[in-house]
DNA sequence: ACGTTTGAGTTATAACATAACATCGCTTTC
DNA sequence: GAAAGCGATGTTATGTTATAACTCAAACGT
């Protein structure tokens, strides 16, 4: 799976919103949901959630691990994989299988399938809330007498900001 | 990514067709296509294609490697990854990213996107020729001004033969 | 307080994939 | 037919992603 993604490039659409607000909202939403479900959003778990929210680019487990280490957290692989497993179970994060990477879920209260547009240049992943697609995929499976459990839809290409190579990517 | 897949289980639908014929047809089709495209289907490449066609279950690179070794082929990882790269480029195989595994393409002449139903119990992967879905995903991307290049659609659950746990899986 | 459950620490290793460089054989060109 | 060029393969080493298995500690219900 080749990728041109430059780790220093921020997705273009990221310049136009207050991302700190974005993260704060996601974290408070997560706290509320965990309380409702009697799930414990412990410090490591919360920190991992914050980290995968800090960019619109999916983060690899070992990238997360590095940042945990910088924060003084324990940093052996199981730590991060366990935290991620928890976040996935709670619907607070998604795994992007084609990148072996993880990202915060934009609407943890409603969807449990993530549909993504992934830019191979800047590495951004945009989650799309597509209830109609979900329904349609269920129907496709049903037509084959297949009991559908999980859907993976990952669409790759170039995001709007990366389609015109002559203009410098905005930071 | 948890899976119950038992490596000794064959998919139920596999009992009802002559799979050798299946493989033979796939191989001759591949030879023809390679000739048309001036691509060299060398012995290793052909053997790898044959191997990934021998079951309806996607095979991991190291599984393929083991079988190549049994045949007396060279068996270091680059050998198999290079052969797979070739087959993917020629549209003769697909990568199932959620399984880190590979499978022969059922209709290499027409489609280059593979849509899969993957059984988590028996490990089978059925490719679906869904032109309508392809069109629809293109439209979804276009609506977001996204330049779509590759589509990954992997639907997991239980295949028809694995939905009734009381009846023994057919061999 | 006590046992049970859940989370986290630790060590080791499994599983998947590629980098980098050497070699071999074919064909193209002179 | 020698030499250059090229595509395929061999070889060694290493990078990257993920989990097994066991231990310890903190939280929770009773």
Question: Which key features would you list for this structure?
Answer:
alpha+beta, homodimer, three-stranded mixed sheet, DNA-binding
Summarize the structure.
Two copies of one chain form a homodimer. The first copy, chain A, has 171 residues and is of the alpha+beta class. In chain A, 38% of the residues lie in helices and 17% in strands.
Task: Explain what this protein looks like in three dimensions.
The structure is a homodimer of 171-residue chains. Chain A is globular and about 50 Å long. Chain A has five helices and five strands; from the N terminus they run ααααββββαβ. In chain A, a hairpin with a 4-residue loop joins strand 1 and strand 2. Chain A starts with 18 loop residues before the first helix and ends in a 13-residue tail after the last strand. In chain A, helix 1 (19-36) runs antiparallel to helix 2 (43-53). Helix content of chain A is 38%, strand content 17%. Chain A has 171 residues and is α+β, with helices and mostly antiparallel strands. In chain A, strands 4-3-5 form a three-stranded mixed sheet, covered by helices on one side. The first copy, chain A, has a two-stranded antiparallel ribbon with strand order 1-2. The A-B interface holds A 1, 95, 97-98, 117, 119-120, 126, 128, 130, 133, 136-137, 140-141, 144-160, 163 and B 1, 95, 97-98, 117, 119-120, 126, 128, 130, 133, 136-137, 140-141, 144-160, 163.
